Amino acid sequence: MKFLKYFLIIVLGLIAVTLIVAALLPKDFHAGSEITINKPKTEVYNYVKLLRNQGNYDNWSRMDPNITRNYEGTDGAEGFTYIWQSKKVGDGKQVITKIDSSNGRIEMDLFFNGSEEANKSFMEVTAVNPESSKVVWKIDGKMPYPFNIMGLFFDMNKDFNAGLQHLKEILEK
To answer: Which of 118, 121, 117, 99 is nearest to 108 (CA)?
Structure first.
């Protein structure tokens, strides 16, 4: 009986410490990466503005090859919606909110696991020279308490970097 009592005290103590640490951590997050691709800006932009192509290079799709995808609207246009379901990487929805072809920028809202609060994301393609482009892919959002503690153990920058590396491989073939 003493063992069970001590075990429960330890478990409750660990839960309390976890909740206290999560209360002290920021709930906002920022992640992203950038890369130079040896292809002209127009070619790179025309590929990344289509959300259907994202599954070819994003790291999360590679983590779950059985991800279920649904699309609504005209891809590459404002309002286009990509909805995914995955037991491994979670469920979500991504909506194109702004297309700025002249500046090579696509802005998107991401909603994770049924949340109604949008996380703001963008991809921006700029010309480095006529034969190469820089791609920036970033997200800003909020992680609800107590899940914000995952920020201590999970680095989304690595996933964005890996996704851009995959994009580079695809486009430079």
So the answer is: 121
Spatial strand order in the sheet of 81-85:
28-37, 132-142, 119-129, 105-112, 92-100, 81-85, 68-72
Residue 38 has pLDDT above 80, yes or no: yes
Cis peptide before 130 (omega within 30 of 0): no
Confidence at 100, pLDDT banded by 50, 70, 90: very high
Q: What CATH superfamily is the domain 27-171?
A: START domain (3.30.530.20)
Tell me the pTM: 0.83
CA distances, 63 to each of 52, 59, 98 (Å): 17, 6, 28
42-74 pLDDT, tens digit each: 999 999 999 999 999 999 998 998 999 999 999
Q: What string of DSSP letters covers 5-60?
A: HHHHHHHHHHHHHHHHHHHHS-SEEEEEEEEEESS-HHHHHHHHT-HHHHHHH-HH
pLDDT at 80 exceeding the cut of 80: yes
